[in-house]
Amino acid sequence: MAHASLVADSAPISPARRTTKGGLSPWREKRVKAMILDGLSDTLEIARLAEACALSRSHFSRAFKRTTGQSPQAWIRAQRIIRAKHLMQTTDLTLTQISQECGFCDQAHFCHIFTDSEGISPFAWRSRVLRAQPA
């Protein structure tokens, strides 16, 4: 739950989205984002998220993308990367531990997704960020 409040600021409900036809209602958006952020270390099933919003899986996926600009899977991946970056900056956890904490199936998958997203390996990213921090 602590992570949900940490990342909640990066996942606000924008007023412009409320007027988008076919998107999630504000209460649904808030509910599903909280569920995702609270469950990042677990396997998140789209069907379960859709059920929490009382929508079919396909309708939920379309509405989520219209609301956030990303598919549910892409948004979840982005949130996992945000959490991983936070953990790499603020803890001494190994990359394996971070990958597990962020819900990746293993460290290799985490490294692949992180490198695709950031253009740099997690190890190199962490080294660069920690060198830039004042001692």
TrEMBL record:
<dbReference type="InterPro" id="IPR018060">
    <property type="entry name" value="HTH_AraC"/>
</dbReference>
<dbReference type="InterPro" id="IPR050204">
    <property type="entry name" value="AraC_XylS_family_regulators"/>
</dbReference>
<dbReference type="InterPro" id="IPR018062">
    <property type="entry name" value="HTH_AraC-typ_CS"/>
</dbReference>
<dbReference type="Pfam" id="PF12833">
    <property type="entry name" value="HTH_18"/>
</dbReference>
<protein>
    <submittedName>
        <fullName>AraC family transcriptional regulator</fullName>
    </submittedName>
</protein>
<keyword id="KW-0804">Transcription</keyword>
<feature type="region of interest" description="Disordered">
    <location>
        <begin position="1"/>
        <end position="24"/>
    </location>
</feature>
<keyword id="KW-0238">DNA-binding</keyword>
<feature type="domain" description="HTH araC/xylS-type">
    <location>
        <begin position="30"/>
        <end position="128"/>
    </location>
</feature>
<keyword id="KW-0805">Transcription regulation</keyword>
